[in-house]
Write a structure and sequence with these properties.
The chain contains nine helices and 39 strands. By secondary structure, it is of the alpha+beta class. Helix 7 crosses helix 9. The protein has a five-stranded mixed β-sheet with strand order 1-33-34-35-36, with no helix packed on it. Strands 2-39-38-37 form a four-stranded antiparallel β-sheet, with no helix packed on it. Helices cover 14% and strands 29% of the residues. The chain binds calcium ion. Calcium ion binds next to loops.
């Protein structure tokens, strides 16, 4: 406290000496301002609102009594229809946000006037490596600079006033590997910290810290051991990887990269001076293939605590030892103090993919409690003595395939949760999605392709309408108000489908959440009563923020559907492709969105060519292992990326080859698949998609089926 006062006094003295007024703007965002972010609720200075990342806006002008008068203050149309996942940063009346393809905008936070735009011109070919859409989750602001992590690995510092590049550092250890970067950087003690993704395709995870002023690398921590034949990395993680992690790995684990990518949660604990990193899943997913089915595989699926200045290891907690289901622990982390059994405890809260809500003591990393917040079939609980899950052995799909919940999309994914210190509740966007896991026999790595080690056969989406509807109705989303002390829900709101937005809690006793159906809603934070809804005309997955300009409170959210679920689920209703928007609300706001047109879908477009059953079968296998991750399983597309069954390209062999084999549409992100497949193999994919188009045409001829 004394130190904070001294620095504040020095700053004040400085401004008096120069004759300037109180300093404001992005140039004054520094450690003191972010550490004390709660004292200036009119700003949203860092990704989670403050270093504790509670996503609680201590503003009550908009409240449970008057939220019905909330209306659109302004909106800005975006130039992309891909998913919008960013949390805007707001500093003294200026909003800094990102859109898909890592583009950055600075806006007047009261009017929406665009101050500047920055496009890093990401090579669209990198989109093929993006497991979960070409999204970006936002910027960091520090000392007059705005930091964006571009999909292609560049960490770029921009002048906050002009958007001009100040420095750019390539963070990928090997740009030929299928790494991607989608997360929001965090600035801690003058260092920009960032990780990356790619564990579905086969990479080795790490986080790196860069000097915020110069972009010079300060330290790097690899989350999993590398190839022992190559010796140590020469990084700060060397000793703990050799001593603690490597003994938990078996076989030729390094050949597939091993995984452990840290693509989202990076949280600074200013009270204890610790940095928490959420670590991702194994690569390939299948533990049997990755590590001979043996060992915990540290630090996969763990929360890692590091010293922020040096990256040195402090402690870890691993929720899913021997991860084999894509159960990342990259999900958002919230810091708080809770009174547990009569004692105040400094805790870290996380609800990762595996379906447990963890409360962990930040001093030392001991697990305090863990309870399931969603349907789980892989474990029956957590042993608090050992901190280990009590597993259901069959769920490891060793002898036979197993239907498991949660799915690789998680009982909770990256969508931010929030915590209200007033209600003591965590507002958690949860979901229920089952997955059939079956080990892939004869697994062979495909460099740069998807390498999961599980069998993804064609035919997972039933053509039978009754079966289709039965599965679709089992896919659910929920907003859960979770009591982290009692470890149980206080209230819940159900949604028709999964993949809804992040949450924001406010001092107006409100919780804001967008949903996949396009509603942006406000709930009573104590009771869950729905108080307000706005039709955003596109699904919302991002988390909202709140801020104030000249005494007026605003609520802002990035609208734009996309991300992993609509790309990879075959059970989404087809949607019209619509560009995203920045939506900002205030009391009495009167603006209207332009009226949305009714979606018109092209008819199914089967080719007239004759194909052999062998072609269709071969094409189905290739499609399931490659194409399905963007265009939807069994060619059932949500419309975020083109529905190939309705595509004019499908009817003509030469056009198909030009696009799929040669890469004629690479400027749109459709890379040349000649790297992996022969023209004959890709023609077989056309045969398979053609069959799917025929089935769709038959359904469309009888009913308005999907
Ligand atoms: Ca993953």
């Amino acid at each position: 406290m004394g130190r904070a006062y001294k620095v504040a006094a020095l700053l004040l003295a400085g401004s008096m000496l120069t004759g300037a007024g109180p300093r404001t703007g992005a140039g004054t965002v520094n450690a003191q301002r972010i550490v004390n972010a709660r004292s200036e609720p009119g700003n949203w200075l860092t990704h989670g609102g403050s270093y504790a990342e509670q996503r609680f806006a201590d503003l009550g002008q908009i409240n449970a009594g008057n939220v019905s008068q909330l209306g659109l203050a302004w909106s800005v149309d975006l130039d992309t229809s891909r998913g919008q996942e960013a949390t805007p940063i707001v500093v003294d009346g200026t909003m800094f946000t990102t859109t898909a393809w890592s583009k950055v905008m600075a806006l007047d936070a009261a009017t929406g006037r665009v101050k500047w735009r920055f496009d890093p011109q990401v090579d669209k070919a990198r989109g093929h490596s993006a497991c979960c859409d070409v999204v970006n989750r936002g910027v960091a602001v520090w000392n007059g600079m705005v930091y964006v992590a571009a999909l292609d690995g560049r960490l770029i510092a921009l002048d906050a006033d002009t958007g001009k590049v100040k420095w750019s550092s390539q963070t990928f250890i090997d740009t030929t590997k299928p790494y991607t970067m989608t997360g929001a950087p965090r600035v801690v003690k003058g260092l920009v910290i960032i990780g990356n993704g790619g564990a579905e395709l086969g990479v080795r995870g790490y986080v790196t810290a860069y000097d915020a002023a110069t972009g010079k690398k300060k330290w790097r921590f690899f989350t999993v051991p590398g190839d022992p034949a190559k010796g140590p990395d020469g990084e700060v993680s060397d000793s703990v990887l050799a001593g603690k992690a490597a003994p938990t790995w078996y076989g030729d684990y390094w050949k597939g990269g091993a995984g452990g990518t840290a693509w989202d949660a990076i949280v600074y604990d200013a009270e204890l001076d610790q940095l928490y990193i959420g670590v991702g899943n194994g690569s390939p997913w299948n533990h049997q293939i990755r590590s001979e089915g043996k060992g915990d595989n540290l630090f996969l699926s763990s929360v890692l605590a590091l010293k922020p200045d040096t990256g040195e290891y402090l402690w870890h907690y691993q929720g899913t030892p021997g991860e084999t289901w894509d159960y990342t622990a990259t999900q958002p982390i919230i810091l708080s103090s809770l009174v547990i059994d009569g004692k105040p405890r400094k805790v870290l809260m996380q609800a990762p993919k595996n379906g447990f809500f963890y409360v962990i003591d930040r001093q030392g990393g001991k697990l305090i409690s863990a309870k399931s917040f969603a349907t789980q079939t892989w474990a029956t609980g957590v042993d608090l003595k050992t901190g280990r899950p009590i597993e259901v052995p069959e769920a490891r799909y060793r002898a036979a395939g197993a239907l498991v919940m949660p799915s690789p999309l998680g009982a909770h994914n990256w969508q931010p949760m929030s915590f209200s210190p007033r209600t003591g509740l965590v507002y958690l966007p949860a979901q229920e999605i089952p997955q059939f896991y079956e080990a892939k026999t004869g697994f062979e790595r495909q460099e740069g392709g998807w390498n999961l080690g599980i069998s993804l056969a064609a035919g997972g989406v039933p053509d039978d309408r009754a079966q289709f509807k039965a599965i679709k109705s089992a896919l659910k989303g929920r907003l859960i108000a979770w009591d982290p002390v009692a470890q149980k829900p206080a209230w819940e709101v159900g949604y028709d489908g999964p993949w809804n937005g992040g949450t924001l809690a406010t001092a107006g006793n409100l919780v804001f959440q967008g949903n996949g159906g396009g509603g942006f809603q406000a709930f009573n934070a104590s009771t869950g009563a729905k108080l307000w809804n706005f039709d955003a005309q596109t699904g919302i997955i991002a988390g909202a923020v709140s801020y104030a300009v000249k005494g007026e409170q605003y609520v802002a959210v990035m609208a734009g559907y996309g991300g992993a679920y609509p790309l990879t689920s075959g059970f989404e209703d087809p949607r019209e492709v619509r560009n995203g928007r920045v939506l900002v609300f205030k009391l009495g706001g009167k603006r209207q969105l332009p009226r949305a047109t009714q979606p018109v879908f092209a008819a199914a477009n089967p080719p007239k060519d004759m194909f052999t059953p062998a072609q269709v079968t071969e094409g189905g296998t290739i499609y399931a292992g490659t194409c399905a991750f963007c265009h939807g399983p069994d060619a059932y597309s949500s419309g975020i990326l083109p529905d190939l069954r309705r595509s004019a390209v499908l009817t003509d062999a030469a056009t198909w080859k030009a696009v799929v084999h040669d890469g004629a549409l690479k400027a749109n992100g459709m890379v040349a698949f000649s790297r992996w497949y022969t023209p004959a193999q890709l023609e077989a994919v056309r045969a398979y998609v053609g069959e799917q188009a025929k089935k769709l045409a038959a359904r469309e001829a009888t009913t308005a089926g999907k």
